Amino acid sequence: MERITSAAQVIISVIPIVGIVMGSVVIFFYLLWNHRRKTLLIKAGQYSRSDFDLYSFSLLSGLLLSSVGIALTVLLSIIEGVSYGLLGGIIPLSMGIGLLTYYLIRRGEKRDG
Prior knowledge:
- By secondary structure, the protein is an all-alpha fold.
- Helix content is 81%, strand content 0%.
């Protein structure tokens, strides 16, 4: 097996850090410009609040997270067995199940009330 030089190790370890920093900068400027835009629209009297359908969002994201979590959990359990790496599948699976549970509870409340 080829030996990795120290320069290559530094480059490999810096790439995720640069990606996280760049993503954070993009998110920061999006939030800043969106805030300024909304402020100017409010001052001009043209702002209208957009509706956000939390129930459809929780259903869609719950289904997506659950399916990805199931696939990762099965794959990682086959490859690695029971280890800390299995959390990479269990965490999205539990988040998806939580969102689906929220959707089902709120749907029941909407029907009753």
